[in-house]
Amino acid sequence: MNNVTDAKHLQQAQELDLSNFWMPFTANKQFKAAPRLFKKAKGMYYTTVDDRQVIDAVAGLWCVNAGHCREEIAHAIANQASEMDYAPTFQMGHPLAFEAASRVAEVMPAGMDRIFFANSGSEAVDSALKIALAYHRARGEGQRTRLIGRERGYHGVGFGGISVGGIVANRKAFSANLIPGVDHMPATLSIEHAAFSRGQPAWGAHLADELERILNLHDPSTVAAVIVEPVAGSAGVLIPPQGYLQRLREICTKHGILLIFDEVITGFGRLGKATASEYFGVTPDLLTMAKAINNAAIPMGAVAAKREIYDTIVNNGPANGIELFHGYTYSAHPVAAAACLAAQDIYEREALFERAAQMAPKFEAAIHDLKGEPYVKDIRNLGLVGGVELESREGQPGTRAYDAFLHCFKNGVMVRFTGDILAFSPPLILDESHIDQIFSTVRAALRAVH
Ligand SMILES: Cc1ncc(COP(=O)(O)O)c(C=O)c1O
């Protein structure tokens, strides 16, 4: 039975017309000339169409925290799709939407228990930015329209997200149309001062004071919100310096500015706690999440808001009118909500956040053991996130990491690369043998690639 299915998959893959699918964030021409295709996934592993097992060192795209194809989630999705495929949440409701919100609220920092649902990280970010603006307006401070992000920040691909984001490649083609009134703090990474830091770098807390400088320039009373990723993933794994996030929190509080943590990657266990906010002991006002919220089995994103933000917007709205003109057809989609509840059950029952915390020291030791391998110029990590930055080839940035990525893939390990940085964020279910497999393969790749 399996052999027949496998043979069918391979034949289908060989006959596949690759021309129609315009692939996102992909070198389309390069990929289509030599495609890398998966057909199955289970636990820590993918299976390629030619039947090779590939260990997933990035949890898909930083999202499959409980490992692939969890049966409880698959059943929840199938059951819900046949019970009630869709119900609107505009002026109507269904119980799963409320249950999912309660369940997510349980693991959010205290007081951040009002949950707005979206379908992706990008939508969660744009929702959070709009909630911040609506909040200030509702409390009579409608002049607070400015938003502050950070260089190298990644907040998805909506116009709001790329405007507060700080990744040049994601902005430059759209630069004339970015939203106005946005400024950026400097990125916190300094290889010069903090190379090969284990966990949070000791250097760099003073970079938070740049926020004060920017606020003075614009007048703090014009600023609505500051948004940062507590740990940045997509820009190449940037770990906040010790004390940095605490300082941002103090400055925002002092000036009545909302602090938004974009936890699309860090939410649901990546650092060994439910959220990075909990891990760092710093509570934002709004928190965005997506990805692992339902183990990425179906699209879902969300914003957690402090109760006071919800109350301000709702209590200042018209008596029987809509208070926030924002929402998505699929906000709290029943199937996504069912998957969310099933995923949260798994996280709790298997204590996966604690497991991530237990595995983090082993992961740290293994990744830092790559120091001294060819072209490795920095290694950084926190929880189950890690990055290995390579020296770039003269005039060909990104090609060395791409070659290393390809070498790993051919040898059974899927890593992620951004520029010349290799990134790791494995499912939280991994054990020591997986860590060994991942990093011994990466070591061999670094030795093979010139
Ligand atoms: C911090 C952060 N915010 C937002 C996003 C965007 O999420 P999505 O791709 O689901 O729109 C990502 C995606 O990686 C992310 O890492």
Automatic annotation (TrEMBL):
<dbReference type="InterPro" id="IPR015424">
    <property type="entry name" value="PyrdxlP-dep_Trfase"/>
</dbReference>
<keyword id="KW-0663">Pyridoxal phosphate</keyword>
<comment type="similarity">
    <text>Belongs to the class-III pyridoxal-phosphate-dependent aminotransferase family.</text>
</comment>
<dbReference type="InterPro" id="IPR049704">
    <property type="entry name" value="Aminotrans_3_PPA_site"/>
</dbReference>
<keyword id="KW-0032">Aminotransferase</keyword>
<dbReference type="GO" id="GO:0008483">
    <property type="term" value="F:transaminase activity"/>
</dbReference>
<dbReference type="InterPro" id="IPR005814">
    <property type="entry name" value="Aminotrans_3"/>
</dbReference>
<dbReference type="Pfam" id="PF00202">
    <property type="entry name" value="Aminotran_3"/>
</dbReference>
<dbReference type="InterPro" id="IPR015422">
    <property type="entry name" value="PyrdxlP-dep_Trfase_small"/>
</dbReference>
<protein>
    <submittedName>
        <fullName>Aspartate aminotransferase family protein</fullName>
    </submittedName>
</protein>
<keyword id="KW-0808">Transferase</keyword>
<dbReference type="InterPro" id="IPR015421">
    <property type="entry name" value="PyrdxlP-dep_Trfase_major"/>
</dbReference>
